[in-house]
């Protein structure tokens, strides 16, 4: 009997590759994986295509509804994630990157609505509606770019609300590898400083070690549709304060890292429009704290890794940071 088809959008990315690995290494490969990528001729795509008989690498253009419909045809499961394109953000600004990601998300969900005869489970990787939750106080483009697709999925007329799981994945601890998160060595105090525009007590949701954790959670979502369809799954392994994030890096890197708070205005002045984007995110999290990923939702709609029985399997943020060569990154 032919196994059902599971489509993974962005199969070579952090989320997609984690899910693909989890689905293939579970007790038995229950799915034929259709791994979507924008370039099947890339060395990474070729390696993936040759890595397992259950994987089909499929070239897809997220700007093309026709391309997406062809990729989805016959699928039982779709994992969908869109990207706030860094190159567009840096060269054209946040509004252009937001508009592009919105269009990709809507193309995906509209194509998914056309295969209702085979589709059983649609997993949408999304983020909170910070603008709506705070009545316009925090409009974070890389959060808001997910929301039009959310609204389409929630509209009963589109036939997907009871087939969808909304997955809100917490922050990556490994963001510390790159600007504007990367700690800076301050010679006067003899240590590295992690500087963010929020209080040291700001409680930040983290996915933990991304590579295993995302796949473990998604595999559990698919195994337990009775718990997850029509629900919001919290892709969060732990909450750490901003100061604890710095301490976690200290433990993992074996160098001293401290946290320092900066005003949003100074952060924006230093990092420009990147500082505005990231700074607003941290101010939003600071204001809502533990509710930043669940605010506005009924408790009956929220599913945690503990509810799914995988909390004990998740790897911590420190586990992930400990596998990175910080000597090269921090210099």
UniProtKB/TrEMBL annotation:
Keyword NADP: yes
Assigned keywords, A-Z: NADP
Gene3D superfamilies assigned to the protein according to its UniProt record, in alphabetical order: NAD(P)-binding Rossmann-like Domain, UDP-galactose 4-epimerase, domain 1
InterPro entries xrefs: NAD(P)-bd_dom_sf, NmrA-like, NmrA-like_oxidored
Annotated NmrA-like domain residues: 7-291
Family under the similarity heading: Belongs to the NmrA-type oxidoreductase family.
Protein name per Swiss-Prot or TrEMBL: NmrA-like domain-containing protein
Organism, as annotated: Aspergillus cavernicola
């Amino acid at each position: 009997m032919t196994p059902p088809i599971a489509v993974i959008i962005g199969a070579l990315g952090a989320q997609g590759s984690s899910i693909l690995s989890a689905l293939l290494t579970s007790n038995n490969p229950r799915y034929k994986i259709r791994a979507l990528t924008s370039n099947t001729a890339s060395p990474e795509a070729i390696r993936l295509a040759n890595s397992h008989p259950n994987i089909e690498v499929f070239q897809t253009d997220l700007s093309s509804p026709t391309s997406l419909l062809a990729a989805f045809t016959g699928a039982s499961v779709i994992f969908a994630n869109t990207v706030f394109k860094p190159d567009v953000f840096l060269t054209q600004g946040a509004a252009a990157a937001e508009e592009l990601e919105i269009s990709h998300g809507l193309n995906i969900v509209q194509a998914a609505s056309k295969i209702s005869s085979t589709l059983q489970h649609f997993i949408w990787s999304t983020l909170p509606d910070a603008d709506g939750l705070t009545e316009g106080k925090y409009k974070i483009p890389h959060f808001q770019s997910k929301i039009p697709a959310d609204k389409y999925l929630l509209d009963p007329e589109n036939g997907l609300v009871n087939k969808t799981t909304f997955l809100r994945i917490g922050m990556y601890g490994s963001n510390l590898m790159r600007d504007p998160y990367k700690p800076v060595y301050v010679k006067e105090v003899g240590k590295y400083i992690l500087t963010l525009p929020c209080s040291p007590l700001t409680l930040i949701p983290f996915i933990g070690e991304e590579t295993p954790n995302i796949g473990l959670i998604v595999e559990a979502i698919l195994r337990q549709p009775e718990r997850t369809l029509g629900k919001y799954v919290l892709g969060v392994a732990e909450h750490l304060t901003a100061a604890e994030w710095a301490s976690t890096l200290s433990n993992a890197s074996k160098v001293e890292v401290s946290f320092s708070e900066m005003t949003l205005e100074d952060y924006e002045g230093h990092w420009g429009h990147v500082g505005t984007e990231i700074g607003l995110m941290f101010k939003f999290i600071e204001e809502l704290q533990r509710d930043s990923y669940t605010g506005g939702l009924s408790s009956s709609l929220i599913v945690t890794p503990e509810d799914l029985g995988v909390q004990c399997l998740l790897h911590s943020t420190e586990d992930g940071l400990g596998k990175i060569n910080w000597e090269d990154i921090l210099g």
